[in-house]
Amino acid sequence: MSLFSHNPTEFKTLLAERSNYRDVDYKTWLIDLKKPPGMLEIYAQHLFGAVMGQTFPALFVFEWLLNFYPVEQIVEIGTGCGGLTVYLQTQANIRGLDFVTYDARCRLDDKNNRIMANKPVKLKEYINYRTGNVFEKDTRDEIRETLKKKVTLLYCDNGNKPKEMKTFVPYCLKGSIVGTHDWNGQFGIEGMIKELKMELLFEDICKEGMTKMRFWRKET
Ligand SMILES: C[S@@+](CC[C@H](N)C(=O)[O-])C[C@H]1O[C@@H](n2cnc3c(N)ncnc32)[C@H](O)[C@@H]1O
Known about the structure:
This protein is α/β, with parallel strands linked by helices.
């Protein structure tokens, strides 16, 4: 079996074999933010020293996606503390893609990003970030303009994903990939997905990777 396989079944099996999470109740791995995290939880939630709100297998899913669904830019909505952002920014740098991330409030200097080392991580110097409410006119229009220019991987991970998708997906070019986190059908947006003319991609791979991410391709 090859890492370069574009066969979803093969990739799914590979992911399952490589994932340490397979037989673990994933919920037990999540940080309960009210408690100080244990060391295992810290490692499970940080990447490059920054807090990441995704499972590690999710990173394999992004790798696979970027290899086989070529895009020209990545737009992330919901930077959080930047753990996933630093990964996506690096993917963009290496692959020669544009990258930008948005959050209503910048948390790149969050104290939890300093747990792993004495020195704070230097995310602000590395990441192309913008601070602004994505539903306010100036920020909203800036994102829409960006989406109209290039085939995009748009990753929606803010507080109101259905609204975010409704606001931005119509401005994505054909062939763009739209991803969202925390998908378990609770969005009630299945109808909207049809309306937005998006085709669901490799759900089985996302499930096998123990991630609640889902991806769609914009068909028109
Ligand atoms: C779940 S966190 C993002 C986690 C991050 N993607 C990761 O994987 O580590 C959601 C973020 O969305 C931001 N957010 C919520 N509503 C927003 C809005 N209307 N505009 C911009 N950002 C928003 C919050 O400030 C928060 O940092």
